[in-house]
Amino acid sequence: MPTTIQTFAEKKRRGEKLAVITAYDALTAAMVHAAGIDAILVGDSAAMVFAGYESTLPITMDEMLYHTRCVVRGAKGAFVIGDMPFMSYQAGHDDAVSNAGRFLKEGGANAVKIEGDDPALVARLVHAGIPVMGHLGLTPQSVNAFGGFRAQGKTEASAAAILKSAIALDQAGCFSIVLECVPSPLAAEISRSIGAATIGIGAGPDCDGQVSVINDVLGLSTGYLPRHAKRYASFYDDGLSAVRSHIDEIRSHAFPAPEHEVGAHAPQRSKPASESSPAS
Ligand code: KIV
Fold this sequence. Notes:
This protein is an alpha/beta fold and 280 residues long. It has helices at 5-14, 26-34, 46-49, 61-74, 93-105, 119-127, 143-146, 156-172, 184-193, 214-218, 235-251; strands spanning 18-22, 39-42, 80-83, 111-113, 132-137, 176-180, 197-201, 209-212. The protein has 2 domains: 5-230, Phosphoenolpyruvate-binding domains (TIM Barrel), CATH 3.20.20.60; 235-261. Helix 9 (184-193) links the parallel strand 6 (176-180) and strand 7.
């Protein structure tokens, strides 16, 4: 059964965990879809793990739409959520609605994700027929306001503010809310308090589902693994040793071997003019 926004509500009601993962290209999207993921988030984390920036801030609408189209082409029938990049929705609601619409119209996404606490914008998007995933806690687009990538909701006041925002986003119509790097008891309380499915990343086991960055899961990064992430493979290390072996074989003349050569009939030598038969 293909995922829809109703799947999020049904799985929450049945107590079945939702599994969401990021992807930025067609092949990875095909792989995570084949593995049975519930939804694919084309995260603006692409700015960091794909494009090599230090934060998510530089990625543009056009770049996010490109990644979204790649994912949609690679994972036909998957539920794809496009992550609205920094400054595509903060400057005004009209701008936000038209940028969100582009994710569905030009990107082929099924929903958008926006960070922070703007229930009026969520209501407008939902009214326009655009399903919205919220995102609270450590919202990376606010890295400068937070003074770094810092966990949120650790004080009583900040926990209460996040709970209040989650309730407001739920009432405004979010089908789901990402909770990033908040204490597990707060995430558990939010999950109990709202109808929208909570999707945690660094928010403990009691969310309605989990979202992970694909590069962390595959071990496709050069070093740092966030505390909340789990690595299941070593794609970077395996790739490094594969390419090293390839380089060694080129340098030692072991590659290409005869089986890698293009097969061809021996070229026909043209006869010298003296041997050719006279024209009749
Ligand atoms: O951009 C992203 O990948 C995200 C997830 C970490 C939730 O927002």
